[in-house]
């Protein structure tokens, strides 16, 4: 079982493509899933690390080089705050003056949707005209 699981992890093959020498692929898959869910792999790793550390076989120094670990393109100084509000032309209504730009946008969208619904209701109630 363990050899089958490790073979799959090392090679990246699909579970169904495991060689027959590891047994039925479904059994190997189910065992891996069960051991992952109940924490068997974590406990096994802790025991192996503890034994290797006691034997002074592990070097815990970590070296990170930017040529190896690259940042994602979106990690390069993206803004976290919303964009600034557009310049007002003096026609801002009193009811929206203390809102954030996002709240103003949502309020305006609600107004537009309500007007569109009212227009559609009026149009549905009027007789059809053919041109």
TrEMBL record:
Transmembrane segments: none annotated. Residues 1-44 form the Insertion element IS402-like domain. InterPro entries: IS402-like_dom, Transposase_6_like. Residues 71-101 are annotated as: Disordered. It holds the Pfam family DUF4096. This is Insertion element IS402-like domain-containing protein. It comes from Streptomyces gardneri.
